[in-house]
Amino acid sequence: MKKLILLSVASLAILSCNKETASAEKMKTAYIDTSKLLEENKEAKDLEEKFKVKQEEMGRELQGEAKQFQSEAASFQQNAMIKGQAWAQAKGAELQKREQQLGMKQQAMMQTLQQESGKEMDSLVKRIKNYVKEYGKKNGYDYIYGTGDAATVLYAKEAYDITTTISKELNDNYKGPKKSETAKEETKK
């Protein structure tokens, strides 16, 4: 009797394992190389270009102030001997203060730029994640894994790579910068 019960429990366990294996075989999975996806994304490239232009504009403004400071510093060295030690100390302190202000201004500009670009990139990544989620639902995937910088997949068959498909669809759906943004940038130039 005990053997019969053990045998029936064992056969139930084997049958239930077979059912799980069968359903696991029917699972649809894929992966996306997230690094490649961002590299090929038109919107990410546009954002990168936008912030490169902003950085150049900010750099030009700061560069003008730095040149003026350098000429004043050169003038200071020439006049220091002529105008005396008291003048040199006062002017030196003033120049040092301006140099610190220039450094702080540069740091503030870079921080502002990083915050703005970070916000926009975070927003883009969120939109891409939502797109992949919807793509997965629409196409019947059970799992879509991510590889790249933050790899969550150590190995996958190339046949499961849908990076190119997702990248193409994202780029096809991207409308480019809004005309008002493009017009603003061109009038600044």
Question: What is the count of DSSP helices, taking H or I runs of 4+ residues?
Answer: 6
* Separation of the first and last Cα atoms: 91 Å
Low-confidence stretches: 6-23
Strand order of the largest sheet: 1-2
Report mean pLDDT, rounded to a whole number. 79
Sheet with the most strands?
2 strands, parallel
Helix content: over 70%
Alpha-carbon Rg, integer: 31 Å
Question: Quick one: how many beta strands?
Answer: 2
Keywords:
189 residues; mainly alpha; two-stranded parallel ribbon; 6 helices
Detailed description of the structure:
The protein is mainly alpha-helical. It has helices at residues 2-25, 34-40, 42-83, 85-138, 163-173, 179-188; strands spanning 29-33, 143-147. Helices cover 78% and strands 5% of the residues. A two-stranded parallel sheet has the order 1-2. The chain starts with a helix and ends with a helix. The relative contact order is 0.15. Mean pLDDT is 79; it is low at 6-23.
